[in-house]
Write a structure and sequence with these properties.
The protein has 457 residues and is an alpha+beta fold. The chain folds into three domains: 63 residues, no CATH class; 204 residues, DNA ligase/mRNA capping enzyme (D-amino Acid Aminotransferase, Chain A, domain 1, 2-Layer Sandwich), CATH 3.30.470.30; 148 residues, Nucleic acid-binding proteins (OB fold (Dihydrolipoamide Acetyltransferase, E2P), Beta Barrel). It contains eleven helices and 22 strands. Strands 13, 14, 15, 16, 17, 18, 19 and 22 form an eight-stranded mixed beta sheet that branches. Helix 1 packs across helix 2. The longest helix is centred in the first third of the chain and has 15 residues. The relative contact order is 0.10. The N terminus and C terminus are likely disordered. The structure holds three DNA strands.
DNA sequence: GTTGTCTGCCCC
DNA sequence: ATTCTGC
DNA sequence: GCAGAATGGGCAGACAAC
């Protein structure tokens, strides 16, 4: 049994406890008047302080020496220490956005498919780059360090930049897929060894020339951003943005984003509730991707052919399933992905019960999958599930459409989740290998997709 | 040296 | 990453 | 509405096995 007692999982709970403890042991000052619930207020203060300075070695001593009520003064944003990146909430369509933000000025930006980065530039010219999870990435991106140092304007002596690092082909002047970005080396990278270039797509500024901007409105922060850097193709660009509240215009912008190899849009208010909220998935930022929308985006009908026992709250039911598409030519089921999300507890219980009676001792001879995949149980092919995905990718392990796109690699799904059970389909009516290959080819990265160069007339 | 397997306060 | 659920 | 807990693909690195 490996019980990893590790702080960080129930972080919010721990911070709450810390805040309450601080109130009970408070001996420095009394809570400000006008406070209804000192306990709740203290929790807020501690959480706020931590989000801006996530260092227990600073927070706890500050609590002990100067008390909770002074914490906003004793623990504030510090250059060189990463703050939690502001997150966005999924949204189902343009109409939901227009409705939620009516009477409010808001902006839409491209959501680039790369790696989030928070770049700190200190007065002494040193640079630190942090990942979405506050990992120190500086050694992975010496090219980014050089680019920001070169492209900041001379008036800029310090800054914190929020941006997306995206793989980029500077000859063809186009964005490359996330899968290409992830092939970059991760440690002690030297400039001359870099094979995959990145372009910085900047969208926010949290600090400039000694001035914290977190509590400023986006309008102000963006102004600071635009005035602090020179753009340069293939190296540093501001995220494409429009300010509009017109449904059609936003819809067109979303299409443009997808055409431009982006995942979708991020929508942000400019003035109202427009401060930078570290780590919070508050309503302030929304994300819109095609695969969130009903009846649009890639949807496939797939057959569960195996499963894995669940853990934790999934103990006693299956926790994940291996899915396959059907290859009509070879009359075989080819693995395409595992799936473990999108099930309500009731549906998961149902499916587990139903498939438990379809367990077979060995995989069928007509199941095609990698030997490295070792499910706990195999099934007779009996059900068809509708599954949604953000993307189709060339896979090192799965076998869907093998031989069509690539001679010996199959296709898999990015972010697969269950939509519903297709009671009306038999396994042989599942998505075919040809259909999978076709869906892969028609993605915007891949060569001949654009025009209506398609079949019949 | 090569190949295989597993892990990551991983990235998405 | 996505999704669901208890509070 | 938020925090937490289930779960996905896939990469470089680390390390074990050969």
């Amino acid at each position: 049994m490996q019980a990893k007692l590790r702080i960080g999982l129930a972080e919010q709970t721990l911070l709450a406890a810390l805040g309450q403890a601080a109130v009970y042991s408070e001996k420095h000052s009394t809570p400000p008047p006008n406070i209804q619930s000192p306990l709740e207020e203290a929790v807020k203060i501690v959480k706020q302080a931590y989000s801006v300075l996530p260092v227990y070695d600073k927070i706890v001593p500050a609590l002990l020496s100067d008390g909770v009520w002074n914490l906003p003064n004793t623990c504030s944003f510090t250059l060189g220490v990463p703050v939690g990146p502001m997150l966005a909430k999924p949204t189902k369509g343009v109409s939901e956005i227009v409705q939620k933000f009516q009477n409010t000025e808001y902006t839409c930006e491209f959501k680039y498919d790369g790696e989030r980065a928070q770049i700190h530039y200190l007065e002494d010219g040193s640079v630190e780059i942090y990942s979405r999870n506050a990992e120190r990435n500086t050694g992975k991106f010496p090219d980014v360090v050089a680019a920001v140092s070169r492209l900041k304007k001379s008036s800029v002596g310090s800054f914190v930049l929020d941006c997306e690092l995206v793989a980029y082909d500077r000859e063809k002047q186009k964005i490359l897929p996330f899968q290409v970005l992830s092939t970059r080396a991760r440690k002690n990278v030297v400039m001359s060894d870099i094979k995959v270039n990145v372009c910085i797509y900047a969208f926010d500024m949290l600090y400039l020339n000694g001035r914290p901007l977190i509590q400023e409105e986006l309008k102000v922060r963006r102004e600071c951003l635009y005035e602090s850097f020179e753009e340069e193709a293939g190296f540093f660009k501001f995220a494409s943005a429009i300010t509009s509240n017109d449904i059609d215009e936003i819809q067109k912008f979303l299409d443009a984003a997808v055409d431009g190899s982006c995942e979708g849009l991020i929508i942000k208010t400019m003035n109202k509730d427009a401060t930078y909220e570290p780590s919070k998935r508050s309503l302030n930022w929304l994300k819109l991707k095609k695969d969130y929308m009903d009846s649009i985006g890639d949807s496939l009908d797939l057959v569960p052919i195996a499963a894995f026992h669940g853990r934790g709250k999934r103990t006693g039911v299956y926790g994940a399933f291996l899915l396959a598409c059907y290859d009509n030519n070879n009359e075989e089921y080819q693995s395409i992905c595992k799936i473990g999300t999108g099930f309500s507890e009731a549906v998961l219980e149902e499916r587990s019960a139903s498939l438990r009676s379809k367990v077979i001792p060995k995989p069928k001879s007509y199941y095609r999958y990698a030997e490295t995949i070792t499910p706990d149980v195999w099934f007779e092919p009996t059900e068809v599930w509708e599954v949604k995905a953000a993307d189709l990718t060339i896979s090192p392990v799965h076998r869907a459409a093998i031989g069509i796109i690539d001679p010996d690699k199959g296709i898999s799904l990015r972010f697969p989740r269950l939509v519903r059970v297709r009671e009306d389909k038999t396994p042989e009516q599942a998505s075919s290998s040809e259909q999978v290959a076709e869906m892969y080819s028609s993605q915007s990265h891949n060569q001949s997709n654009n025009q209506d160069d398609n079949e019949d007339d």
